[in-house]
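FORM 7B: Structural annotation worksheet

SECTION A. Query
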Amino acid sequence: MFGIFTGTVVNAALVIAGTLIGCIFKTEKLKRIGDRVFQAFACFVLVLGVSGASQLLRPVFTLISLVIGISIGELCDIDDKFNRLGNSLQRRFAKGAEGGSFAEAFVSASLLFCIGSMTIMGALQGGLEDQHSIYYTKGLIDAVSAAGFAMGSGVGVAFAALSVLVYQGLLTAGASLLSGILTDEIVSLSTQIGSLSLIAIAFNMLGITKIKVANFLPAMFVPIVWQAVLTVFGAA
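SECTION B. Predicted structure
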């Protein structure tokens, strides 16, 4: 029924399921446990980010991609738009929730579930092969992550499923159209930049920083755009 988007739909559904489980166990009696689980989860995200960025490919090109991408993100202020969307969802669907924490949970969870090597590799698998094992696996991981996240941050995590649907859906569609230029090196460069963003997300979750990580998102696509330009002009 969903074709190449089956994996994305299942992934989003598992995010919602995980959040519901986390919210069920989010009681006053278990609040301290939830807080510790959330902190442990933030440390896990930090380790994932460090692991993914530990061996930098083409560091100068990566730095240039970050500068260009973050500049675009800041000019568009993607992070602010994410927060406005989160506040709008809070007013519409979760009026009893605290607006700031709801929006923060929505933004942080959206970035967490949408950034990483499995996101890109799953899109490639779905868009090029119509296979979905990577997104099924990622969905199970995201479900566990959503449960831990929701215990500390609440129902706003569930609405990150919308971000998963849109973002992964677009990536999958794009992969099916750009199969000729998505080389292993370009994929590795994009996921490497995503791993650097995961480190920033972990710092935010631990309360160390207040980095606008959503404004990092365009940087992941700079290598892809650059390769597309080279391909077009090389064929001309």
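SECTION C. Observations
The first helix runs from residue 6 to 24. The radius of gyration is 18 Å.

SECTION D. Sign-off
Analyst initials: ____
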